[in-house]
Specification:
Structural class: alpha/beta
Largest sheet: 4 strands, parallel
Shape: globular
Number of helices: 10
Radius of gyration: 17 Å
Distance between the termini: 6 Å
Order of helices and strands: EHEHHEHEHEHHEHHEEH
Strand content: 5-15%
Length: 230
Amino acid sequence: MQKIGLIGGIGPESTIKYYQLIIDKYRELTNNKSYPEIHILSIDMTMMLKYISENDKIGFLNFMKERIEILRSSGVNKVFICSNTPHVFYNELQECVDVEIVSIVNETLNYVESLGLKKCGLLGTKFTMSKEFYSLNGKKRGVDVIVPNEDEQNVIHDIYMNELVFNVNKPSSKETLLSIINTMIKESSIEGVILGGTELSLILNQNDFEKTTIVDTCLIHVNSIVKELL
């Protein structure tokens, strides 16, 4: 069995969901009542986002490298960062550490590609939507990743950081998100929606849509974690 390390706390609500889903999926696949052994290191999301918002790549890399080293020194074989936003500097971070970081972006786009989807909308934090790391990686796979306009990105970011991160789920906010997505469906002909923020699955799911495929990055990452555990 692989020894898995998770960088959590970014944010806490989705980390709780990761933990619960990992246990449920693991027990389902092993068909017994045992529990997987995993290491979770909860970090300060505010500090991490400060480095990204200031585009302080060096500060971010030093911050994350120090924390990943804690997991590596405990003997983990692979690390999973339980958030999309930190992957803005994924390539640089991977080069800085001696343990494999399994990218939520790569795992998600592999899944999108496996479904045959060619055009997907992307929701997440402002950093995830605006920094193009999803769209650039998507192009390599023949997947066109579409983001909302700047005003809509600001609205989504506000809902994300001031509500979802604190597990606040307002019906009015859900309607706002659905309205933005439906506009993208009509105007950009997207086939799927990537929930590029792991808290977004707390408010949106496949039941909200008849034809458009919802791509839950949290669940995809969890499946990758359990696969490694087994």
